[in-house]
Description:
Blueprint: E1 4-11, H1 21-30, E2 34-42, E3 45-52, H2 58-69, E4 75-82, H3 86-90, E5 97-99, E6 102-105, E7 117-120, H4 133-142, E8 151-155, H5 161-168, E9 173-178, H6 181-194, E10 200-204, E11 215-221, H7 224-229, H8 231-236, E12 238-250, H9 254-261, E13 266-273, E14 276-282
Parallel strand pairs: 6-7, 8-9, 8-11, 9-10, 11-12
Antiparallel strand pairs: 1-3, 1-4, 2-3, 5-6, 12-14, 13-14
Helix pairs in contact: 4-5
Amino acid sequence: MARTVPCLDLRFPPLTGDPGLPDRxxxxxxxxxxxxxxxxxxxxxxxWRVFLADTSALGAAIAALDRExxxxxxxxxxxxxxxxxxxxxxxxxxxRVEVGQITVAPPWDATPPAAGVMVVVxxxxxxxxxxxxxxxLCLRLLQAIPLTGRRVIDLGTGSGVxxxxxxRLGAARVDAVDxxxxxxxxxxxxxxxxxAGEAIVLRQADLAVDRLxxxxxxxxxxTGALLVAQAPVIVSLVGPGGTLVVSGILAEEVDGxxxxxxxxxxxxxxxxxxxxxxxxxxx
Length: 283
């Protein structure tokens, strides 16, 4: 079965009445960390196929673009296309990202940093490279938590970047969970690149169905809607005295997410980058 890559298809209306629309859309896309944009159609009514560096942000990207440009006639839909090494070709320009004491780097820019720890991530199909705001927010909050010797669950692991970061920061064991088999295949490549061995265990699971053993630290870079929908399950995974870090939350979603996850958990830290939010809870 051919491997596919999720992306966005943007179809513009005839531009005779609004020739500046593509420039405004391009500016909005720049905030969404695009990995590649393939243009087709014609100048009068272009079609763009957009690949994001972090595919977990596709849903939020569709919502944001729709809010801003639907009234101008832009149509935005998610598509799945055959993986023709899109990410490998389009992300070859990516370089390292430094977030506090953590450096996330592709293999071609993996010179060890002078200080801190390094996570090497092969972009492959773009499940998470450290370039998106939500990943950076999680990395910042993870560094504020004592992880040495603790057990961590990474929900929606994608590329495995957060699982690898937790391991590099001293976690004794990390369960990296995702329902997407392609994401787990990408994560396996990255675990091997970093020599994580058996310290990180990959598991294909659906939060709505499968049950996991609670952990000392739970991190979930998901979406605001999923965090609210699965709040009881997510809270149950945080062991006594444990910590929950969540991101993938748009500014307008943060109140709902905070309310859904509060109760037995208390908010102790909240970070923002552009329109994105991340929250740290403690039990």
